[in-house]
Amino acid sequence: MKKEIHPKYYENCKVSCVCGNTFLTGSTEPELKVELCSACHPFYTGKQKLVDTARRVEKFEAKVKAKEEGKEKKGKKVKRAARAATRSKKEVVVRTKDLKRITQVKLNKTDKK
Known about the structure:
alpha+beta, three-stranded mixed beta sheet
């Protein structure tokens, strides 16, 4: 084994869990703090325990709250339907020269059927 390339090994590393359980083991760190151990892990105890390390529950609750507050806002489909309804209510002004050509085109299309 080469000297000075390996980390220092601590034979009596103290491991402390959130539940209060502590034990000794070997590690390259002098002290470890863990969230779950064999005394409180659901697999070993048979009891379910919620572990929220990345704040997932709080993020989800924030999303739900924001969605409830945003119910007053309209979605894309509702906005598009409202816009189409207002456009259909507008009067269309057609020039007389264009009107003759449009009627001819409509007549030609109906004649083919």
